[in-house]
């Protein structure tokens, strides 16, 4: 057959080898898709590669390196998109800029009596259903206890003032100056 065709034997052998290797690629693509779907599309190249290698060893297929797996995943548009989006984090400094209060605490983060120095902060938390929940905590520096806290789905002034109003009602008369330290966010 080669004598009848106008090609060299080396070209014929090259194409025979190439066509046989694509069959392995189809098997690899099938294995990659299986692993990807089995893990609900949460795996990228780094997690898919070792699993593909272990399956290839069991099946007796030539074990590919991570670059080949990455190329096959790219060519077949197999990629994890669940963790690629950057979500915006809560930043309290986005509020209106104005007069900053003096830093009275000056890194003296210790106290010798309760209710003398307290800190407060607002933190954004993600819930399972991808909603955001905000928590504000007021903590006593001396006892290291959380005195009051507030949870809310909305970040507004009413949410920020609620734990402070409840704290004022229970504060005992200490006879010394009370300091509430915050990060000077908009609230």
Offer a few descriptive terms.
rod-shaped, 2 domains, 4 helices, alpha+beta, single chain, 4-stranded mixed β-sheet, about 190 residues
Write the layout of secondary structure elements.
Blueprint: H1 9-38, H2 45-59, H3 66-75, E1 117-126, E2 132-140, E3 146-152, H4 157-170, E4 179-181
Parallel strand pairs: 1-4
Antiparallel strand pairs: 1-2, 2-3
Helix pairs in contact: 1-2, 2-3
Brief summary:
The protein contains 4 helices and 4 strands.
In angstroms, what is the radius of gyration? Answer: 31 Å
- The tally of structural domains comes to 2
Q: List SSEs in N-to-C order.
A: HHHEEEHE
Largest sheet: 4 strands, mixed
Description:
There is one protein chain. The chain is an alpha+beta fold and 187 residues long. The chain has 2 domains: 9-75, no CATH class; 92-181, no CATH class. It is 37% helix and 16% strand. It is built from 4 helices and 4 strands; from the N terminus they run αααβββαβ. The protein has helices at 9-38, 45-59, 66-75, 157-170; strands spanning 117-126, 132-140, 146-152, 179-181. Strands 3-2-1-4 form a 4-stranded mixed beta sheet, with helices on one face. Helix 1 (9-38) crosses helix 2 (45-59) and helix 2 packs across helix 3. The N and C termini lie far apart (84 Å).
